[in-house]
Amino acid sequence: MAKLWGLCLKYKEQLLYLVFGGLTTLLNITAYFVCSRPFGFSPMLSNLIAWVVGVLFAFVTNKLFVFCSRGLGIKKVLREFLAFVTCRLVSLAADMGMMYLLVSFLQLPDMPVKITANIVVILLNYLFSKFLIFKKTAMEVS
Question: Is this structure's pTM higher than 0.85?
Fold first, then answer.
């Protein structure tokens, strides 16, 4: 049991990212489904709305719980938020590109494509957050 706990502590950041990334993905897919089915929005508009909802949720949870970026000064939060949104725009382009190519162009079923696109997006977003947005400075590490 102690060995398992040690692994959990060692990989705490990755495990928390999986938990909150999973919640973000669930929120994203739910928002997409609600927009596309009951509201009848197009797949592209539904995807964009789902992205906005997911980005707002992910920023807060990534900042506070995953990467533990505690600086709450307006400059730091604004810098992190702008970097976060910029990187999320890159992953949105990948997501929208996959949705357009596979759903709109190749006419594949939208929900399996949406789920697959989210897996790609999760990986991209983790790398962006870890190495570009919430990277720890030498002072924060020590």
Answer: no
CA distance linking residue 132 with residue 142, whole number of Å:
19
Please list the pLDDT of the chain residue by residue as tens digits (142 residues): 888 899 888 999 999 999 998 899 899 999 999 999 999 999 989 989 998 999 999 999 999 999 988 878 899 999 999 999 999 999 989 988 999 999 999 999 998 998 899 888 888 988 999 898 987 765 555 5
By CB atoms closer than 10 A (0-12, 13-18, 19+), residue 66 is buried
Q: What is the DSSP letter of 37?
A: T
Helices (H) and strands (E) in the chain, counts: 6, 0
CA angle 17, 61, 57 (to 5 degrees): 110
